[in-house]
Amino acid sequence: MVAKTTEKETSTEMTQPVIIDLGEQKSKALKELKAGEGELWDEVFDVVEEVKEMLGKGAEGKVLVPVIMLYEKKQTRRVDLERILFPLMDRINDDDEDDDEEE
Length: 103
Known about the structure:
The structure is a single chain. About 45% of the residues lie in helices and about 0% in strands. It is mainly α. Helix 1 (about 25-35) packs across helix 2 (about 40-55). The longest helix is centred in the C-terminal third of the chain and has 22 residues, at about 80-100.
């Protein structure tokens, strides 16, 4: 007797990710988001529900999992040339004025 194996074909369909930019937020709101609470979490959850509605029957039996990325822009330190140069220029100008007075 030969055992028959049946293979179930599954089709995977690549879809575009849904990206939500929540903008700059306060640390309290981010802590609540990390805990799955608060206004930001509600906003993410609302978007997930909207995506489910857009997918219609394609979303049946599927669980949509939001992936939340938090980031901070690294602050760059700019050299303020005016702060550096103008005090030096003032010293040079003061020295020039002193030279003029001596003559």
